[in-house]
Amino acid sequence: MLLEEQRFLHEDLERLEQGISDRVADDPRQLRDRLSRDHQISGFLTRIQDQSKRLLEIYNDTDGVRRQEIQAISTGDPFDEFYKQLDEIKDFHRRYPNEPVENLERAYRKKVPGDSDLAAAEIDNMFTGEEAYGRFLDLTTLHEDYLNLAGVKRLTYLQYLDTFDIFTPPQCPIRRTDKTTDQYFNYVGALATYLEGFLRRTRPLEALDKLFASIDTDFVAAWDANEVPGWGDDSTSQGQAERKAMDESGDGIWCADCEKAFQNENVYRNHLSGKKHLRAVEARAAGKCPANGAANGGTSGASAGKAKAQLRLKERAVAEREYRVRRMAGAMQQQKSDTRVNVERKQGMTERERQMELDTLFAESTEPTAPGGEDESDSEGDEKIYNPLKLPLAWDGKPIPYWLYKLHGLGVELTCEICGNFVYMGRRAFDKHFNEARHIYGLKCLGITNTTLFREITQIEDALKLWDKIQRDQKKEKSSTENVVQMEDADGNVMPEKVYYDLQKQGLL
Predict the structure, then answer these.
(1) pLDDT digits (tens, 9 = 90+) for 30-84
(2) pLDDT tens per residue, range 93-103
(3) What number of H helices and E strands is found in the chain?
(4) d(C-alpha 81, C-alpha 100), whole Å
(5) Contact 252, 246 (CB under 8 A)
(6) Which of 367, 416, 469, 485 could form a disulfide with 497 if both were Cys (CB 3.0 to 4.6 A apart)?
C-alpha cells in the first residue's frame, strides 16, 4: 500500500497549493479576517513541508519496500495482487468500522458565509481585548512585574511604554548587581517571550526563525567583542563613556561606582567623600581584582575565579534576553507608537465610550460577508464622506463630533518658529510637540543642549536670549562660589581670598 500513500501525498500537495492560491487571491478588509487567512496559509505551508519530507522518504526507498511492491504488481498475475490488497482493505475496515475518512476537498476549500470557521475562532482566542488583533501591545502584566523589581522608580504605564526596551542608565535605574537576581531574570525572560509570541501571532508568513537566529548571532558577536550596552567587561571605561554622554546632553552626571545619576555637579562632588560612595568603590575594586586572593592561597584564588566565571555566565544570560527585547522592540516601532496613542486616547474616554467602542469592534469582526460583498464594499469605499466643516477623521474613518472638535481646540492654529514654522492644530498637539524629535532637533541646531527649560518658547530670538541668560547665570554662580572663602588681615578687614592674596603679593598688607 506504499504506492497508494504516495498517490495520496501527491493529491494532498496539489490541494494544499490550490488552497493557498485561493486564499492569496482574497484580500479581506478586516484585520481579523486577514490574520485568519495568514495563519491558514502558514498552516498549509507547514503541512506541505511535512508531506514533502514523507514523500522524499518514500522515493529514497531506503528499506526497499517500494521496490518490492512495484515488483509484485509488475510480475505475476495482477488480479491476485489486486484481490490481496482488497482483502487487506476490507479486513482493516472490519476491525475499525468507525474510522473517519478525511475529505481533502472540504478541508482545504475556502470558507463561505454560513460555515463554521474554526480558524477565526482561534484568532479570537489568540489575542486579548487590549491587543485588538495585533494592532497594540498588552504590557499591563509586565508593567506590574517591573514595578515589583528592586531599585526601580514608580512609572506610569505610558512612561513604561517609552522605556521598556531601554536597559541602560539613566532611563533604566536598575543596578548591574540587581540585574543578576532571579526576579529580574524572570521579568526579562517573560518580556522577551511575550514579544516573540506577539511577532509570531501577527506575522505568521514572515521568516521569523531567521530573524531570531540573526539576533542570536549578532549577540554572540557583540558579547565576544565586549560591545553589549550596559554589560561591558571594562566597567570603568563604560562608566566614563556614560558620564561623558550625560555631560554632553546636560541631563546630569553619572557615577559609575554608585551607578547613580546626579543632576547637580556640587551634589556629585560632595557625595564622593561619603561613606556610601567609598564602600561602593571598595566593592568595585574587589570585584575587578579577584586574583588578589591567589597571593594568600591557591584555593581562594581558584574559588574567586570560579565565582567570577559563574557571575559572567549569569550576566550573559540576562544580557541575551535584554538584547532580544531591544531588537524585537525595534522591529515593532509602529505597534509601540500606536499603543501609546491608544492608551492616551482611552484615558480621556468614559467607561460608556470604551464599552461602545468594544461593541462596535466586536460587531464589525463578527459581521458576515454577503455574496457579492466585494462590489458593495468597493462602492461603499468610493462614497464621499460629507464633511463640510473639514473636521478630523476618527478611527472609523468618519468625522469626529463638532463638540469634541471644539473641546480639544482643534480649530486653533499654533505655530512654532523653532520647528520651521510648523503649524500645530490644537493645544494638545502643541503641548506634546515640545518633547518630540522635531522641536528638540531645532533647539540643538541653535546650540541649545538643555531642552527642558525651553517649554512654551517657540521664537528663535526668545530661545537664544534665554540660553544666553542661562549661560551668564551659570558663569556668575560659578564665580560666586569661588568667592565664598573670606580672609581677614591684621587690622580686622574682611575680604575675599583672591583680593587678600593680590594685596599680599603687592606688599600692601
Answers:
(1) 888 888 888 888 989 999 999 999 999 988 888 888 888 888 777 777 788 788 8
(2) 888 888 777 77
(3) 22, 6
(4) 26
(5) yes
(6) 485
